[in-house]
Recover the amino acids of this structure.
């Protein structure tokens, strides 16, 4: 009986380990990283960088009202989002933001799946950026 109990416990442990390993790789095709970055930290990186791949993933209307300096507008909810981002360099960092963080998280996931290696997502979006009194353009 003790032998049967030990065998059952070992079997359950193997199943749990196998399930955890399978879960960690499901739906991930790229080896990239997604890092959520605080507004001040992103500002400090972008202020001295020329040619940064900074993407505003909001709608054209939202972008027109206010956006970060040197940002490109590629709306994540548009059907051609994937096609438009193919113009970006997958091996250079990409910085994404939206209004509050939901759409940029979605965009970051898509970029990672497409093979982008370093994706930085603005924590709290442009709303948090504004609350930190950081510069925007209209």
């Amino acid at each position: 009986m003790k032998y049967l109990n030990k065998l059952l416990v070992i079997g359950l442990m193997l199943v749990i380990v196998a399930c955890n390993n399978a879960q960690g790789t499901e739906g991930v095709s790229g080896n990239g990283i997604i890092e959520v970055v605080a507004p001040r930290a992103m500002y400090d990186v972008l202020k001295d960088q020329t040619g940064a791949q900074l993407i505003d993933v909001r709608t054209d209307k939202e972008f027109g009202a206010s956006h970060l300096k040197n940002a490109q507008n590629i709306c994540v909810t548009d059907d051609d989002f994937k096609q438009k981002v193919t113009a970006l360099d997958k091996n250079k960092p990409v910085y994404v933001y939206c209004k509050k963080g939901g759409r940029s998280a979605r965009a970051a996931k898509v970029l990672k799946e497409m093979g982008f290696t370093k994706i930085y997502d603005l924590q709290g979006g442009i709303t948090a950026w504004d609350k930190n009194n950081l510069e925007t353009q209209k």
Q: What stands out?
A: Strands lie at 33-37, 53-56, 72-73, 94-97, 118-122. The first strand starts at residue 33 and ends at 37. The longest helix spans residues 2-25.
